[in-house]
Specification:
This protein is 81% helix and 2% strand. By secondary structure, the chain is mainly alpha-helical. It is found in: Cell membrane. InterPro entries: AI-2E-like.
């Protein structure tokens, strides 16, 4: 195709028979910025709509999310039995029943131990705070300063009490809601184990055919990431509970089992969970065995957490699950704002799976298109190299 003698010919080819006033008034930088801006706003609006739907239908979406987490934990066991020769129609119910019994049994035992010692635990932690207050007073801090700080903390808790508890109350307003959510989770889990691949293939069928292989690869990557996250989180929580439990047992702190149970439960809250349980263990040690024992417990908690952060999590979760701490904090905050405590717990695995899927899709789409496309800054538009009439420059969209 012959090159136009003047730029206006290109203008007419792109914009029609009339000259483009926009190209004379708006700079190329502004046009490129506007193109990025409206696309970004569309993505944000889509995410807000999805978040609103999830929050509105939380009594359904939360059980489904829990079922997905359990399916990611149990599905490898089912696949192992199938590889060993057991038929899938028998392996799925067997793994479902066995897994539910084990999970509920472990959770019941842990919660029971924690509840049994919760009263004594709270009293000893309160005593630890009193000792800290006496020590601070002994170094010259006045009662007014201490009372002012304590009062500020109490006021903050009172002011934010409804926000802190709204998520828990909204998802557990009655025993009926809890039982309904549990029934949905168990029902969904069974079919995820039995027909997970068929369900995924049906969802893939809703997408355009050229995009299905890429979406399938992204889904596999996200599923592997979710499974790795769940298994690693359970194992890390167990190691934290055992490690800190051994430390407080050696020091001679009472309530070893309730404290270890608290560590196990709070370890499922990323970043802040282990810190909370470590503070409680240190306060109990301060009351029970004195400041030296409390320092030893605190040192043990720090060592266990450092081993977890620098050895266990990188080793168990791998690169696919690793996320920047800022992304984790923002995910937890967003999940807490949308669905409360449950949202904060589910935010990180959801963000990790989305991150893995986006990375997979980015590798399939961005690189080929970016290699074959160029931005014509003079015209202020995206222009695929080659003549569109002869099919050149369409990149990977035709593959």
């Amino acid at each position: 195709m012959a090159e136009p003698d003047n730029p206006s010919a290109t203008n007419k080819k792109i914009h029609g028979p009339w000259p483009s006033v926009e190209s004379d008034v708006v700079s190329p930088t502004m046009r490129v910025g506007a193109a990025w801006s409206w696309r970004f706003l569309v993505i944000v609006a889509g995410l807000l709509v999805v978040g609103f739907v999830i929050a509105t239908l939380s009594q359904v979406t939360i059980p489904i999310a829990i079922a997905l987490l359990l399916a990611a934990l149990l599905n490898p066991v089912k696949d192992f039995l199938v590889r060993k020769g057991m038929k899938a129609k028998f392996a799925s119910p067997l793994v479902f029943v066995t897994g539910i019994v084990l999970v509920l049994g472990i959770l019941t035992a842990v919660v029971q131990q924690f509840v049994a010692g919760a009263g004594d635990l709270a009293n000893r932690a309160s005593g630890g705070l009193t000792k800290i207050r006496d020590w601070v007073h002994s170094i010259g801090v006045s009662d007014n300063q201490i009372n002012s700080t304590v009062q500020s903390a109490e006021n903050w808790i009172k002011d934010n009490h409804s926000t802190i508890t709204s998520g828990a109350l909204s998802t557990a307003t009655s025993a009926g809601h809890v039982l309904a959510g549990l029934a949905i989770a168990m029902f969904t889990l069974f079919f995820f184990l039995r027909d997970g691949r068929r369900i995924w293939n049906w969802l893939l069928g809703l997408a355009p055919e050229p995009a299905r292989p890429h979406l399938d690869a992204a889904g596999d990557r996200a599923w592997m990431t979710l499974g790795g996250y769940v298994k690693a989180t359970v194992l890390v929580a167990f190691v934290d509970a055992v490690g800190i439990g051994i430390v407080i047992a050696i020091v001679g702190v009472p309530l070893v089992i309730p404290l270890a149970a608290l560590v196990f439960l709070t370890s499922f809250i990323p970043l802040i969970g282990a810190t909370i349980s470590g503070i409680v263990a240190t306060l109990v040690a301060l009351v029970a065995v004195g400041p030296v024992g409390a320092i030893i417990v605190l040192a043990g908690v720090i060592v266990v957490q450092q081993l977890e952060g620098h050895l266990l999590q990188p080793l168990l979760m791998g690169r696919a699950v690793k996320m920047h701490p800022l992304a984790i904090v923002l995910a937890i905050a967003t999940g807490g704002m949308l669905i409360g405590i449950t949202g904060a717990l589910l935010a990180v695995p959801i963000a990790a799976t989305l991150n893995a899927a986006i990375k997979q899709l980015r590798g399939k789409y961005d690189e080929p298109i970016g290699a074959q496309a160029a931005i014509d800054a003079d015209a202020g538009r995206d222009d695929l190299t080659g003549d569109p009439d002869d099919g050149a420059g369409t990149g990977s969209a035709q593959k």
